[in-house]
Automatic annotation (TrEMBL):
The gene is LOC107405945. It comes from the Eukaryota. Belongs to the Gfo/Idh/MocA family. This is Uncharacterized oxidoreductase At4g09670. GO terms for molecular function: nucleotide binding. Residues 142-263 form the GFO/IDH/MocA-like oxidoreductase domain. Gene3D superfamilies: Dihydrodipicolinate Reductase, domain 2, NAD(P)-binding Rossmann-like Domain. Residues 9-129 form the Gfo/Idh/MocA-like oxidoreductase N-terminal domain.
Length: 362
């Protein structure tokens, strides 16, 4: 029993955003993690949030400041779901306190801020990971096997992705994601992060050479982007198109087309079900004689998942932290590299918007 306790990674959470409830549930379901502390800007808010989440204050420390969570010597790793404008300050402080970092996306206001966060993590020997949960689902690994099988999908040449959600009127009045002093990246940071991450994943994280925001960007009166469409071009002639919006009904589409086949799914960010997820794949399809049909139709491939993807994310991070703490391993550089490339492309989209939809070279 004592051995298993020493190998449990104790999480702290700073900030009481709604998405933190999902991560609290994930920590409770993870075998390698336990929730040790939560903190907010006041003890009253922290206690209210703890009650909402059904947390017992005899089992979970409840603090009235973020500093108290970071100063708790029992906390191994922290989840940070704060507004993006606060990431730089608190992520760097967490790293300096030797706390491993699960940072909600978007990771920073720009890549320069993220570089400062990553430097703090590296110099203090702590693991960094952002909250892109879909990357940890077993479906994602299965799709990647097909994408990189040259006989099945062939050379990837077109990617299309959407992330949209129809927000209620009150969202546009008070939500942090439409406030320039809190989350100035708007829908680009909140939604396009997933689309950008998806096409980079499909291209094995090779950066596009040209990024162009397309006409039709919609902003609120404070200048925060609510809707954006953008195109991306690679030197090998691959093209990607993404669309993100707070003004359209929910969609989470991802389509990857290659010289031999196509892959498509409609729920790549959040699967329709927790215990399994599917996608459609077809290879070698042609038009039938007289072009009145197809020689093959997409096959639905189902991938079971014993745990929700957010639990798998927590398990992945906890395993890396265990390796650093208990076996002297170095932090895994894969996750900060993925975040940095995503942020770099996101910055280029924002720059193109600011330039009136002119192309931006990477």
């Amino acid at each position: 029993m004592a051995e298993s306790q020493t190998k449990t990674i104790r999480f702290g959470i700073i900030g009481c955003a709604q998405i933190a409830r999902k991560v609290i549930r994930a920590i409770s379901l993870a075998s390698r993690a336990t929730l040790h502390a939560i903190g907010s800007r006041s003890i009253e808010k922290a206690q209210k949030f703890a009650a909402l989440c059904g947390l017992s204050e005899t089992l979970v420390k409840v603090y009235g400041s973020y500093d108290q969570v970071l100063d708790d010597p029992c906390v191994d790793a922290v989840y940070v779901p704060l507004p993006t404008s606060l990431h730089l300050q608190w992520a760097i402080l967490a790293a300096r306190k030797k706390k491993h970092l699960l940072l909600e996306k978007p990771t920073a206001l720009d890549v320069h801020e993220l570089d400062r966060i990553l430097e703090a993590c590296q110099s203090n020997g702590v693991q960094f990971m952002d909250g892109s949960m879909w990357l940890h689902h077993p479906r994602t690994a299965r799709m990647k096997e097909l994408i990189f099988d040259s006989k099945l999908l062939g050379q990837v040449n077109f990617i299309h992705s959407t992330s949209t959600t129809l927000m209620p009127p009150e969202f546009f009045e008070s939500n942090i994601r439409v406030k320039p002093d809190l989350d100035s990246l708007g829908a680009v940071g909140d939604l396009a992060w997933y689309c950008i991450g998806a096409f980079l994943w499909a291209k094995d994280y090779k950066l596009p050479s040209i990024v162009t925001a397309l006409p039709g960007t919609i902003k609120n009166s404070a200048g925060v982007t609510l809707t954006c469409t953008a195109s991306f071009h690679w030197e090998d002639n691959t093209v990607a198109i993404i669309h993100c919006s707070f003004l359209s009904e929910s969609s989470m589409d991802l389509a990857v087309s290659g010289s031999n086949g196509n892959l498509h799914l409609a729920d790549f960010i959040i699967p329709f079900r927790e215990d399994s997820a599917s996608f459609e794949f077809v290879s070698g399809a042609k038009y039938s004689e007289l072009q009145i049909g197809w020689t093959a139709k997409p096959e639905e491939l189902i991938v079971d998942s014993k745990l929700p993807q957010e639990v798998l994310m927590v398990e992945e991070l906890a395993g890396l932290v265990e390796g650093i703490r208990d076996y002297g391993n170095s932090p895994n550089g894969k996750w900060p590299e993925i975040s940095r490339k995503t942020q770099l492309v996101l910055d280029a989209v924002m720059k193109s918007i600011d330039l009136g939809c002119k192309p931006v070279n990477l």
